[in-house]
Amino acid sequence: MLFNINSITNSTKIYKLMSQTIIPRPIAWIVTKNKDIINIAPFSYFTGLSSNPATCIVSIGHKGDNSPKDTLKNIRDTKKCTICMVDENFLEAMHNSSKELPSTISEAEFFDITTKDFFDDYPPIIDGVKVAYACSLNQEVDIGGKTIPIILNIEHIFVDDKIIDENLNIDFKPIARVGKAYASLCNLKTLKRV
Ligand SMILES: Cc1cc2nc3c(=O)[nH]c(=O)nc-3n(C[C@H](O)[C@H](O)[C@H](O)COP(=O)(O)O)c2cc1C
Prior knowledge:
Elements: H1 11-19, E1 25-26, E2 28-34, E3 37-43, E4 46-51, E5 54-60, H2 70-78, E6 80-85, H3 91-96, H4 107-110, E7 115-116, E8 125-126, E9 131-140, E10 148-159, E11 175-178, E12 181-184
Antiparallel strand pairs: 1-11, 2-3, 2-6, 4-5, 5-10, 6-9, 7-8, 9-10, 11-12
Flavin mononucleotide (FMN) binds next to strand 3, strand 5 and helix 2.
């Protein structure tokens, strides 16, 4: 089948085509804090953008009532967020936290997700995650749609001592998004440097 994107008016169809073919996608489990309410939500239109400068990008949309998702609003208001990377232990909690809740209700409390202050002056991390980034807002990118790509500066990186060695080799097994499903990494192959 051949699809002319410009003739598809239903964006869900485009989402179906892209989300099952641009795979696997890493998941940014984003923690923001606004007026003492801790907000947690996952986003898979997410990837590293550059290591120099250390940046990543995440695209965040709007709620059913057309207001910006809480994560987007909080990053705009506070210019900060903490990104936790999700391993198998957190799959269900991460998935639950995608529920659309009013901004006055914290996913941390609603779903009993324990957080702990970790990076100075950044939102907390989810207790027990093995990798997390403290990020500041670099800029929004205007691509003319309802989903807003946000470029984030990565200011600090936490990697649990148990999964990193002195040569910075990291043994991390994250969960990735594949369509509407989730997948673990397997069959990694290393080739000789060319
Ligand atoms: C694995 C996963 C990935 C998601 N990726 C995105 C995404 O890239 N962009 C987006 O706007 N919503 C995404 N969502 C939906 C948001 O998590 C959901 O709308 C959430 O309620 C937003 O919460 P907030 O209003 O607290 O920010 C994803 C959901 C799941 C389960």
